[in-house]
Amino acid sequence: MKKEFVIGLDFGTDSARCLIADADTGEEMACATAGYRRWGEGKYCDPSGNRYRQHPCDYLEAMEQCVREALAEAGKGVAENVTGIGYDTTASTPVLTDKNGTPLALLPEFEEDPDAMFVLWKDHTAIREAEEINAAARKNGTDYTAYCGGSYSCEWVWAKMLHCLRHNPALSKAARSWTEHCDWTGGILTGNTAPGNMFRGRCTAGHKAMWNAAWGGLPDMEFFKRIDPLYSLFEGNLYHDTVTAGHAIGHLCREWAERLGLKEGTAVAMGAIDCHAGAVGAGIRPGVLVKVIGTSTCDIAVARPESTGGRIARGICGQADGSVIPGLTGYEAGQAAFGDIYAWYRKILEWPLSMIPEKDRKAVSDNILPMLNRLAGELEVTENDPVASDWMNGRRTPDLDPNEKGCICGLTLSTDAPAVFKALVEATAYGARAIDERFAEEGVMTDEIVAVGGIPRKSPYVMQVLSDVLGKEIKVADSGQACALGSAIFAAVAAGIYKDIPSAQERMQSGCSKVYFPEPEKKKVYDVLYARYRSFYGQAAR
């Protein structure tokens, strides 16, 4: 029998990667990664102002490069037998488009304008606009924030698009719609980017754009126009319906078949947010919490609607029917910074390196975090240890507060660098525990935790602390490309190889390579320290 292969594309913060998988087993045949050139050069971003923008050409060029490199690695006979392609992206990562669905940065007059580019998920320039949306929702007859934890985030599309228009009035002459990176990718691959025709994913719409069947789709445009008349630019140029991940949205068009080296007509699946795809690749099902742990975290759970009695969860990123797996309610929470906190601390410690020759810096820099992991792991855990919060990038969940700041309390003159690092690692674990407890409080019960991402595979110390603080076993997914694997699963469903996502998961999902078990004695101490962490809510320096 002829083998069939599927492609999973994973668009991350810094790069895109292509996984070619055996559709029958999920076996990795080849994998390639391509960085975003302009992003790598630091263009269009201003970290001091929390502005993070990405040029659409970075996505297109990286996609072409990584697919071609993966096909070359896979060898002869693979490209012609690829029957489906799926993808995932960061979110909310939207861009303003013209009436034809073209991102404004692809128009000559805006090609170097950051406000005309994709606004990366971690961009926090739209805090004011998010506050206005929340204030309007509280006064509105229908609270459109109900299904996104009761608070709309500055990281999400409606706030970001208004900020770009306000900040750069020249854009309003061309802007007529917006699209998430997730939806635009599918439109590019199928040659269907017109705002009224392009398929829109349930995942990004339900979790980032307040789309919900309860009010017939997106919020009423009159609601937005009361906030700012600029929203009227989008009237009649958005969407009502959405489709779930794995839905076949068309076939690979001639242009992109040629650019990627694949067959024209290859099935294209509706994509999803990267962490949701990662959860699918890790085998999510009711009762399983998947933690995607990297620079930030996403915590994904699913439940049968009848098991929660239609309850709306408070203080999380959101819930949406079918956003992860069709037929189940998908829940998302997460921390705005996790690995980013460790990277920040490393940068602090690296400051003296600026005084030594550049050729000598890398060896020292590369060893800072490994050494801190080792030394912190050797320290005793006591009730008198310093306690930190994990809000250096604001608090995402539970109970959104982008203005919350990080802190470290309990320092003495004897506190050294490993002890501070230990406190920061524990802080990220406390943030994870707060999310786990909120899910339980809201009736989303999980009895198994699976972790995916770079940190679970690279840092045994961080994962052991996480297990001890949570008091639960944590399994680490075997695949280092869980998000791309989830997208490959979507591709296999769109290609008709499997009838649905659970059927594809049975054959293709990643196993687990390691399990971390909690140490009861440490858990008792961490309970005391965690209570101190919880006392910081609303008290951390602003």
Binned, the helix content reads: 25-40%
Count of runs of 4 or more consecutive helical residues: 18
User: Into how many domains do the coordinates divide?
Assistant: 2
CATH homologous superfamily descriptor of the largest domain: ATPase, nucleotide binding domain
Which CATH top level class of the largest domain fits? Answer: Alpha Beta
How is the CATH topology of the largest domain named? Nucleotidyltransferase, domain 5
The CATH architecture of the largest domain comes to 2-Layer Sandwich
Q: Whole-Å distance between the termini?
A: 63 Å
**Rg estimate, integer Å:** 23 Å
Tell the overall outline: globular
Task: Chart the SSEs and their pairings.
Layout: E1 5-11, E2 15-22, E3 28-35, H1 37-40, E4 53-54, H2 56-74, E5 82-89, E6 94-97, E7 118-119, H3 127-139, H4 157-167, E8 177-180, H5 181-190, H6 202-208, H7 221-227, E9 248-251, H8 254-260, E10 267-269, E11 272-273, H9 274-281, E12 288-293, E13 297-303, H10 305-308, E14 318-321, E15 329-333, H11 339-350, H12 358-377, E16 387-388, E17 408-409, H13 417-441, E18 448-452, H14 454-458, H15 460-470, E19 474-477, H16 482-494, H17 501-508, E20 512-516, H18 520-534
Parallel strand pairs: 1-5, 5-10, 5-11, 12-18, 18-19
Antiparallel strand pairs: 1-2, 2-3, 4-7, 6-8, 9-10, 12-13, 13-15, 14-15, 16-17, 19-20
Helix pairs in contact: 3-4, 3-7, 9-16, 12-13, 13-15, 16-17
